[in-house]
Amino acid sequence: MTQQARAVRTRRSILEAAASVFEELGYEGTSTTEILTRSGLTRGALYHHFSGKRAIADALVQLQEEALVLPDHPVRLQALVDLTMMYAERLRSDVVLRAVVRLTVERGSYQTGANYRGAMVAASTLLSQALERGELLPTVDPDELAFLLQGVFTGSQILSQAANGRADLPQRISGMWRMMLPSIVRPRLLPEIDIDPDRGGKLLGLLSP
Amino acid sequence: MTQQARAVRTRRSILEAAASVFEELGYEGTSTTEILTRSGLTRGALYHHFSGKRAIADALVQLQEEALVLPDHPVRLQALVDLTMMYAERLRSDVVLRAVVRLTVERGSYQTGANYRGAMVAASTLLSQALERGELLPTVDPDELAFLLQGVFTGSQILSQAANGRADLPQRISGMWRMMLPSIVRPRLLPEIDIDPDRGGKLLGLLSP
């Protein structure tokens, strides 16, 4: 293995260990010592890559933002549904995402609105496109609806996490869409939108289609 | 002042000081020393009333639950709207409520699902009554809708808190109802439900009617 490949692997080990610690203990409760214990690396290796706890948290947020890819479906509202269904599924399988969500939701000395902004812009963009294409009822305000949807998603994942460790989150997000779609979408399009709870897992290749 | 009246006043001083510390610093960040500094009381006075930080947090949660009174409106869906609008308004004026919300939302060594359960039971009860009285579309599942509404509320107040210190929360909750009502309520009742953002303030006597 080249020196560069080793460096990449070390950096990834630090980030993975840090994600599991942040997810479990929150920003305040996390120490670089605990990250070192879980990664099995030396303090020198950690400080070669990061200046400290905040820099590691920033790197996780950035990693998460880079992973936000808008689904490419011709019906833009379906693309938004797919974004939320995949996000719900990834919250169950991706420790980096869970860590960033905890860092974002909790008010503490680590504060960044970045995660909220990125998701809000993505939702607003898809809804504006859906409105232009005549998928939505003309009364819909894309920015207001994007805020509302993000509110439902954020709240649902907190409640689902508290109730059963997010086991029922895909069902909850599917239920959110079943309840909201009649107020949003043109009636003729309603039966075409797929909100099956398994959709996120199928799109991510975690469940067979 | 009698000894008993003094004791009641001391207990209240401790709880008010503790609420402001919990709201600002979260459960982990709060110390009894900081509570004593803000209340101006002695450590002996504090330990006369409470065994420690956890007991004070428990007392705040209990205080908050006792304050949860179901609004008494003949249209049960309006009573539920009023519950959410007053709650939104109180989150801006009541430090005890804000403290309990932060204790409930954040995962930490202080964990109680009590606040979620109380609000969920209240919402489910009002929705079941609304369904029985024919106010809702027959497709509505009261428990599922109660979970969804609590999710929207929880998420909206977190986002509104992050964006502008909850200044726009009543507008956000009003927007939630405007978006959700067409999927929930019988069409004939729709124009009768009042979702004005000022409604919570008026009902609490904070704004003139």
From TrEMBL, chains A, B:
Keywords: DNA-binding, Transcription, Transcription regulation. Residues 31-50 bind DNA. Residues 8-68 form the HTH tetR-type domain. InterPro entries: ArpA-like (IPR047923), DNA-bd_HTH_TetR-type_CS (IPR023772), Homeodomain-like_sf (IPR009057), HTH-type_TetR-like_transc_reg (IPR050109), HTH_TetR (IPR001647), Tet_transcr_reg_TetR-rel_C_sf (IPR036271). It comes from the Bacteria. It holds the Pfam family TetR_N. This is TetR/AcrR family transcriptional regulator. It comes from Streptantibioticus parmotrematis.
